[in-house]
Structure formats: structure tokens, C-alpha cells
Design a protein that fits this description.
Protein name: alpha-L-fucosidase
Number of strands: 16
CATH architecture of the largest domain: Alpha-Beta Barrel
Number of domains: 2
Distance between the termini: 44 Å
Radius of gyration: 24 Å
Enzyme class: hydrolase
CATH superfamily of the largest domain: Glycosidases
Function: Alpha-L-fucosidase is responsible for hydrolyzing the alpha-1,6-linked fucose joined to the reducing-end N-acetylglucosamine of the carbohydrate moieties of glycoproteins.
Number of helices: 15
Structural class: alpha/beta
Strand content: 15-25%
Strand order of the largest sheet: 5-4-3-2-1-8-7-6
Keywords: Glycosidase, Hydrolase, Signal
EC number: 3.2.1.51
């Protein structure tokens, strides 16, 4: 009798779970915002952003600018970014390199993707420790990396990767390769299109209903992504973009309705709030509101796509990238780190190296990153002025975190320790390899407290000194150092 009752209870539980998952959402923000964000996203912490398209053929822009905006800079003779520009830099470069009569659209024929090996990409991303990838399936130039009939039809020319350029479905190859791993599949798709004949105020309703929404549905129905990363809605409202209707379809009817994650860049929301499963920002330093998961995105340099004009000093160092990740995760966020393959589909060696360096660090310290949440305090400061500011004009440099940790300017405080937490453990991540004592302020031990260093198998001595936990770290020989760039103390069962 007991066994039968338990089976009935289990069946009811499964039915309740199914009904919760299969909930039909209404076309209201109250209903759509009630959908819980799939837990995988908040636990992932580290993703990779791939900007790759026909702009990857010229691969050039002035330092401090987004290279993927090449067409816009070329056509409008203006530039935005870190630096002082005349505005004609791209135009001048383009005419000298390709000639005055060479139209941007002709880059599509030169975009061959001969070195594109999606399986090799996937293996690299696994080694890097990334948990999700976001590929630009269509950027602001409107060129699609999958056989989008809307792209070619509405431009009146072949304008997708199957019809012109590689003559391949690049999105399918990418998706198939990632599906062989545990990495989640994400797609970036641009709302705006600079040159579309339909992307005009008087035709925008037609653009949305005939072009944009069918493209989104095509991607979702054809490839079943785990994440959609929309961008560039300009100043058009959610009523024009039909965002509620699109979200309702994705959350209630699409083949990925229970698992997909949406970002927050789908419209200028008329209620003044942000909507989507998580919040985004780029090249910044501050945490986002805590009512939803959030993500910081940035490139390794000052461009998301590959800019061959950038030199090694323009790239974030491995320590800068790792401490940037730690800084963001300590505040409860994710890092989406940008890379840019060249026009042939080859990921530049310096980007490969940085990803592998991050992966080596995560092999040892991933326990303190994946699946964690912000603790009661996110960081511990030294004495001094905490208000150091990056002097970059617009985009915060990837190595600015070093000035806040290991290389401060005179008089400024540093973040000595970052904290994350998971289950019954707190992780204290140290930007400097400790010598002697480490004092963790306002950390209270219990009778069950245990202190270890991730990747180091020898015991650490510690004691409670008032409100502080004092840990004795022995001198560690070179051969015993568990990793580079940052080191993690695991504190089990502290209050």
C-alpha cells in the first residue's frame, strides 16, 4: 500500500512539474517577466562571444573602436571609441586598400571561411572552460551566416553564407559541433540593419513582421538554441518590435520554450524597465541590479571582432582576463568574452593562447567560479582611496582590474580578496600568491571549519582572531604552485 501511495505521489509530482514547465504566458510584461530564468545560465559564469562576418575580411579599424562597425564608419565617415578621430580613418584606409569603387557588399564574395573548422573551435572552447558560446548569426550589416531567405529576398541579392561567400551553413556547422560537447549554444542577432530597404521608420512594421521576426523564428525552429542575444533595437519601442508577441511565442510555443534564455536588448521598453531573462552591459566595471542574472561582455582588446591594427599591448593580459572574470563572478555576474576569427575562420593565436590560459586556471579554480553566487561581501579592500577610475574615453580597458588589485597607483586601495560562495563553502580568491599570513576580515569560523587551497594538497593552519580568520600559508615551491594569476582559499563551514 505504501509503495502504491509513493508511486501516485511521484506521478502527481511529475505532472505538476510538467505543467509548470509547459505554462502558457500571456502577452503582458507581468506574465512574461514571471518566467524563471533557466538555472544553467546563472551557473555558467563564463561564455565566449564570437563576432564573425564579412567585416572580418578587411579586419581593420583604428585602435579603440569596434571593427565590426566597419561599414558604418565607412559610409558615414565618423568614428566612436577610445581616441580622438577625424572620422575619415576607415574611408581613407578603405579607398587606399581596395579602391574608391569597391563597395562593402563585395566583401561577401571574399568571405570564404576556408579555415573554418567548427569542431576545432568547439575543442578550444572546451579547453578554455567556457560553458556557453554566442555566435553573431547576423550583425548590423544584415549578412546572415545561415540560409536566411529573408536576407537575400529583402536585399535583392544573395546575402547569406549559403548563397554567397563560403556557400556553407556556418550556423549549422557551429551548432552541430557544440552539440557534441556540454557547451550551450547561443546566437546573436541584430535588430537593426544599416542598409536594409525595409529598415526605415515608415516601413519598420513591415521590416519587423516580414523580415526580423521570421528570421528569429527560423533560427529557433531550425537550430534550437539555448540562448538568443539580441542587439541594436535603436530607439524603437517594444510595440514596434512586437517584443511581447515574440517573447510569448518563444516562451510558450517554440521548441525551446522551457530551456532558452533571452537577453534584454530587444527594444526601447516603453515602461522604462528592462525585460528578458538577464541583463547585459559591455566594457564596464559595475554590477547590475540583483533581481535577475546579469552578464558583462567585452573583447580581449577594444574590438569584439578581430582588428589586425591592434598590437599585443592592446590585448588584456591573462591575469587581467582572469581577475576580470573573478571580479564579475564575485558580484554574481557572468563574463561573455569576445573573440574574432579572421575572414578565413581562423581564431588568431593570441586569442587561442588567452583562452587556453583561462582554461588552465579554471581547471584548478573552477570550483570557486561555476555554480557560485555572491557572498555577503564580494571583496576585501586594503587601506586607501577606493575611487580609482579608468581613464579610457569610453571602453574600460581589460587590464584596468590590475590597477585595482596588483599594480595600484600611489595612494589607491586595492581589492585584496574576492569572495564567492556555494553550498557550505566560501571561496576567497587572492590576486597575489600569499606569503605568510592571510587575514580575512569579518569571517567567523565554526567547530566544523576547514581551510584548504584549491590545487594544493597540504594542510593550512588557521586561527580565529576576534572577528577575523587568520590563515598561515607556507612558502610554496615553484613546483607546488597550483596555478598562475590568482589563488583560491576554500573555507568550509564558516558563518
Amino acid at each position: 500500500m505504501m509503495k502504491k501511495a509513493m508511486l501516485v505521489f511521484a506521478a502527481l509530482f511529475l505532472m505538476m512539474g510538467a505543467s509548470a514547465q509547459d505554462k502558457t504566458y500571456e502577452q503582458t510584461w507581468e506574465s512574461l517577466d514571471s518566467r524563471p530564468t533557466p538555472s544553467w545560465f546563472k551557473d555558467a559564469k563564463f561564455g565566449i562571444f564570437i563576432h564573425w562576418g564579412i567585416y572580418s575580411v578587411p579586419m581593420w579599424s583604428p585602435k579603440g573602436t569596434y571593427q565590426e562597425w566597419y561599414k558604418y564608419w565607412l559610409d558615414n565617415k565618423k568614428l566612436f571609441g577610445n581616441g580622438d578621430f577625424t572620422g575619415t580613418e576607415i574611408y581613407d584606409y578603405h579607398t587606399k586598400m581596395y579602391g574608391e569603387d569597391f563597395n562593402y557588399n563585395e566583401f561577401a564574395r571574399k568571405f570564404k571561411a576556408l579555415d573554418y573548422d567548427a569542431d576545432a573551435w568547439a575543442k578550444l572552447f572546451e579547453k578554455a572552460g567556457a560553458k556557453y558560446i554566442v555566435l553573431t548569426t547576423k550583425h548590423h550589416d544584415g549578412y546572415a551566416l545561415w540560409p536566411s531567405k529573408e536576407a537575400s529576398r529583402d536585399y535583392g541579392r544573395p546575402w547569406n553564407s549559403v548563397e554567397v561567400g563560403p556557400k556553407r551553413d556556418l550556423v549549422k556547422e557551429y551548432t552541430d559541433a557544440l552539440r557534441k560537447t556540454d557547451i550551450k549554444v547561443g546566437f546573436y542577432i541584430s535588430c537593426r540593419e544599416w542598409e536594409s530597404p525595409l529598415y526605415k521608420p515608415e516601413l519598420l512594421d513591415l521590416y519587423v513582421s516580414r523580415h526580423f521576426i521570421p528570421q528569429v523564428k527560423d533560427l529557433v525552429n531550425s537550430y534550437h538554441p539555448d540562448l538568443l542575444w539580441s542587439d541594436g533595437p535603436d530607439n524603437y519601442s517594444d510595440s514596434i518590435w512586437q517584443t511581447k508577441k515574440l517573447f510569448q511565442w518563444i516562451y510558450s510555443e517554440s521548441p525551446v520554450k522551457n530551456t532558452i534564455v533571452l537577453n534584454d536588448r530587444w527594444a526601447r521598453f516603453t515602461d522604462g524597465k528592462k525585460h528578458g531573462d538577464y541583463y547585459t552591459r559591455e566594457y564596464s566595471t559595475h554590477a547590475m541590479p540583483g533581481d535577475k542574472p546579469w552578464e558583462e561582455c567585452r573583447g580581449m582588446g577594444f574590438s569584439f571582432s578581430y582588428n589586425l591594427n591592434e598590437d599585443v599591448e592592446d590585448y588584456s593580459s591573462p591575469q587581467g582576463l582572469i581577475l576580470t572574470l573573478v571580479n564579475i563572478v564575485s558580484k554574481g555576474g557572468n563574463l561573455l568574452l569576445g573573440i574574432g576569427p579572421n575572414g578565413s575562420g581562423k581564431i588568431p593565436p593570441i586569442m587561442q593562447e588567452r583562452l587556453l590560459q583561462m582554461g588552465e586556471w579554471l581547471k584548478v579554480n573552477g570550483e570557486a567560479i561555476y555554480g557560485t553566487h555572491a557572498w555577503k561581501q564580494t571583496e576585501q579592500w586594503s587601506k586607501g582611496d577606493r575611487n580609482w577610475k579608468d581613464k579610457s574615453k569610453h571602453y574600460v580597458g581589460g587590464n584596468s582590474i590590475l590597477k585595482q588589485t596588483v599594480d595600484p597607483d600611489p595612494g589607491y586601495a586595492v581589492k585584496e580578496i574576492f569572495f564567492t560562495a556555494k553550498e557550505n563553502s566560501v571561496y576567497a580568491i587572492l590576486p597575489k600568491l600569499p606569503e605568510g599570513k592571510v587575514i580575512l576580515k569579518d569571517v567567523q569560523s565554526t567547530r566544523k571549519t576547514k581551510v584548504t587551497m584549491l590545487g594544493y594538497d597540504k594542510k593550512l593552519q588557521w586561527k580565529q582572531n576576534g572577528k577575523n580568520l587568520v590563515i598561515e600559508v607556507p612558502v610554496i615551491s615553484y613546483n607546488e604552485v597550483p596555478c598562475h594569476y590568482a589563488w583560491t582559499l576554500k573555507l568550509e563551514n564558516v558563518e
